Automatic annotation (TrEMBL):
InterPro entries the record matches: HTH-type_LysR_regulators (IPR050950), LysR_HTH_N (IPR000847), LysR_subst-bd (IPR005119), WH-like_DNA-bd_sf (IPR036388), WH_DNA-bd_sf (IPR036390)
Transmembrane portions of the chain: none
Keywords, alphabetical: DNA-binding, Transcription, Transcription regulation
Family assignment from sequence similarity: Belongs to the LysR transcriptional regulatory family.
Gene3D superfamilies, A to Z: Periplasmic binding protein-like II, Winged helix-like DNA-binding domain superfamily/Winged helix DNA-binding domain
Name of the molecule in the record: LysR family transcriptional regulator
Annotated PROSITE patterns: HTH_LYSR
Ligase among keywords: no
Pfam families: HTH_1 (PF00126), LysR_substrate (PF03466)
Length: 310
């Protein structure tokens, strides 16, 4: 045998012999026969070309080389055991973390319910949620930083896989005492005349509005702009204008200050997709989190259709 033939079983037997200083006790600890322990230890010494044990009739004693070798062996075995236990924890959902990238408007309503549902089944698996601009979500999936992303683009490139989640419809958010709240629905022209509070010109929501309006339609302009839907809702609450937002960014029905009205002529929607790297296997925790996203997105879409508009 050569040094390349040294295996973990050789190191485990050596460590057991060093700990017990007895071949019989070491054999019992390793679940082996005493002769097997002796043979494995001899193989290790032959591979290394050194004597690790000073054998006497009374007891087993480490040689000086064996004493020097033992701390390194313990570190190796401890590290291997930690790694194996870590894999077992991942397999049995006792640890691990799932990383999801998404735009802020998705994180507001859908993701909290997804994480809440996921925690019921896998309380020890953590979730890292990165709220990033539209263009960054796909990049985080491609470079492996995120397990997957929720985006409003299907990811046509061959290096990603896309699963359609839900359709997100735009409506107008306003104060309950706003004149437009008396209408059953509001046109984009009426919303523009009321003074719009909108996401920034380069955000995904703003681009979706631009693409959703018919060709030749004048682009809607904002009186005030923000980069996060939460900021828009705060401005609307202060009476600074009305805000066109997709359904996942709408205020909850129990909000006492704000309400929504359907936006028409035209009806603007966006389609959300779950993106992951093509050919990349997911950890058990990530796989179940992905399944939870799909399930909860379906439920969310149904509930949004049933939301009261008053």
């Amino acid at each position: 045998m050569t040094i390349e033939n040294v295996e973990l079983r050789h190191l485990r037997v050596f460590a057991a012999v060093a700990r017990t200083q007895n071949f019989s006790h070491a054999a019992r600890a390793c679940g082996l026969s005493q002769s097997s322990v002796s043979t494995i230890l001899q193989q290790l010494e032959a591979s290394l070309g050194v004597q690790l044990i000073d054998r006497t009739t009374r007891k087993v004693v480490l040689s000086q080389i064996g004493e020097d070798f033992l701390p390194g062996v313990k570190r190796i075995l401890d590290d291997v055991d930690r790694q194996l236990q870590g894999l077992e924890d991942l397999r049995t959902f006792q640890s691990g973390q799932v990383h999801l990238a998404c735009v802020p408007s998705v994180a507001m309503r859908l993701l909290p319910r997804v994480i809440e549902r996921f925690r019921q089944d896998f309380p020890r698996v953590g979730v890292k949620l990165s709220e990033v601009p539209r263009g960054t979500t796909m990049a985080m999936v491609r470079n492996g930083e995120a397990d997957f992303a929720i985006a409003n683009e299907p990811g046509d490139a061959s290096d990603v896989e896309s699963t359609r989640l839900m359709e997100d419809v735009f409506a107008l958010v306003m104060r309950r005492d706003h004149p437009l709240a008396a209408r059953a629905e509001v046109t984009w022209a009426q919303a523009q005349a009321a003074g719009l509070v909108m996401m920034g010109a380069q955000t995904g929501i703003r681009l979706e509005i631009r693409h959703g309006l018919p060709e030749g339609t004048p682009d809607v302009t904002a009186l005030y702009e923000a980069e996060h839907p939460v900021s828009l809702l705060a401005m609307v609450e202060r009476g600074l204008g009305v805000a066109p937002l997709p359904s996942l960014a709408w205020p909850p029905p129990e909000n006492r200050l704000l309400t929504i009205r359907p936006l028409t002529r035209p009806r603007v929607t966006r389609t959300l997709h779950l993106i992951q790297r093509a050919g990349r296997s997911l950890s058990p925790g990530a796989w179940h989190f992905r399944r939870t996203i799909i399930t909860e997105a379906t439920r969310e879409a149904i509930e949004l259709e049933e939301l009261p508009r008053a």
